[in-house]
Write a structure and sequence with these properties.
The complex is a heterodimer of chains A (332) and B (252).
Chain A (H helix, E strand, L loop, with lengths): L1 H29 L5 H27 L6 H18 L6 H27 L4 H20 L19 H19 L2 H11 L1 H6 L4 H27 L9 H14 L4 H17 L9 H15 L12 H17 L3
Helix pairs in contact in A: 2-6, 2-9, 2-10, 2-11, 3-4, 3-5, 3-9, 4-9, 7-9, 10-11
Chain B lengths: L1 E12 L2 E12 L3 E5 L6 H8 L7 E6 L2 E2 L5 H7 L1 E3 L12 H7 L9 H6 L2 H20 L15 H13 L5 E5 L7 H18 L2 E5 L3 H7 L2 E6 L2 E6 L1 H6 L1 H8 L2
Parallel strand pairs in B: 3-8, 3-9, 6-7, 7-8
Antiparallel strand pairs in B: 1-2, 1-4, 4-5, 9-10
The chains are: A mainly alpha (332), B alpha/beta (252).
Chain lengths: 332, 252
Amino acid sequence: MDKNSISRLGHLENTIGIFIIFGIMIALMNAGMINRYHQGIIIVIFINIILATSLNFITGCLGELALGHAGFMAIGAYTASFVTLNMNLGLPGTVQLIISLLLGGLLAGIFGIIIGIPVLRLEGDYLAITTLGFGEMIRVAIFNLDFLGGARGIFGIPRLTNFNVIFWITVIIIFVLFRIIRSRHGRAILAIRENVIAAESVGIPTVFYKIFTFAISAFIAGVGGGLLAHYLTIIDPKTFNFAYSIDILIFVVLGGMGSFTGAVIGAIILTIMPEFLRVGGIQEYRFLIKAILLIILMIFRPKGILGRAEFSLVQTLEFIKCKIFKNAKKPT
Amino acid sequence: MNILELKNIGISFGGLKAVHNVNFKIGEHELLGLIGPNGAGKTTLFNLLTGIYRPTEGSILFDGQSIIGLKPSQIVKLGAARTFQNIRLFKGLTVLENVKTAFFHRMSYNTFSAIIRTKKFREEEIAIEEKAIALLKIFRMESMIHQDADNLPYGMQRKLEIARALATNPKLLLLDEPAAGMNPQETKELMETILMVKDHFNIAILLIEHDMNLVMGICERIVVVDYGQVIATGTPEEIKTNKRVIGAYLGE
């Protein structure tokens, strides 16, 4: 009973927190404090957050290293762009975008299943290499498909991704992932990470849950890809190369594998940092600085910023309350 | 009525017949011990029963139903749970989460109800949490439910593994060398735990063990295997005086 009321309070506080962040961002934009350039970075941050949380579902929760996330992203991006360009239903922009994203995600998810069935019988290094190969395969396939524009890519995609849409899509994705992981399905996924043989021995169909995780993660990556396509308005196969997959993995590792809020923090830091370093004399060294900072972090905090823990607004508020209370009490 | 029945079970790896022509039965509430010298085929038999290996000959009936070709998770669903010789807990999860995870196939809500948290989701989750805590109370582990499984002492980890197996609601519990690596005091506590489990849950138990005191002390009936074949079956008293068993253990 007591526990229930606490979790309900948590929902309330989190919802308020999300609306406050949204309100502040909108206010700053209206006041001109966030200009168009900043807005562009913010949208890229949100896309990276979506991809990082999606990869965290596989790498952090299921415990399998997947290096082909850009491949799923490419499938989503191309499908969504194709749908938007060729199936114009005369709907309002946002509705059109959501339909395109869902179809893009769906196809990416289907690919996740098709590739997952043979691939997920592998484990560890073998799985990593195979997913890496898969990501490259998608890219090369698109490169050679004329109806997808080949090496030139697709251009003239309407810019339907804006701050409002991407903010709420990100919130929904993170919400859904949290709800899944905090259910019997999530426990099954975590059990596979902890010990596959033991998971099977308590009645969890491990192969099914590996494919399930892969499919959900691929779906979300596809949605992220679709959002990117509708933001950049031009996509080509080079956008979704191996380096992007690695970048996504770095967001997850930096934030802490197994933590969704960690993935969010990792994506934010590593997307903003190169932009901050775009000033003065250090400009040319910004990737070097990023690399050095990563090495330092891995030496002093190998588990990532949050480890497996999740940032909790409720606990943070409690903590602050305690501090204030203590300080207020001291004089008397 | 037998809960488990092995008929002419055998498995060969290449040309090696690891287990050959094994027959035995376990009664519904029986505590059966399976012993044999190293390399006799005990663990292979265990893996056949739990669906990790598929026998090349013979049949296994669990509760009257053939389990050959089923996946380990499907056999668990039918009601045969196991523990491992080298303890396999979900180390990074808490004690409570370890047990709750094992309630998996006793819950039925789907992903969608997990996302929107339907009434069914809430009811099942609350019920499972209560059941898991009640189960841990039986093992007197209620004070440590929020500890990581990895941080428990060895004897407690073994207890937790048994509790987790029981959470799947088995009719038969298979224990693979539960006393491995335990000191005499821990072994004694383990004996008490096993007897408590048998009485409290009223299930059949198959125990593979090296520790003779444990086997002789609590098993009602013992099956002895050597070179992949059953060489003797009987009560502890009969086994103690059986010439073939003594021969297999001490050599002639």
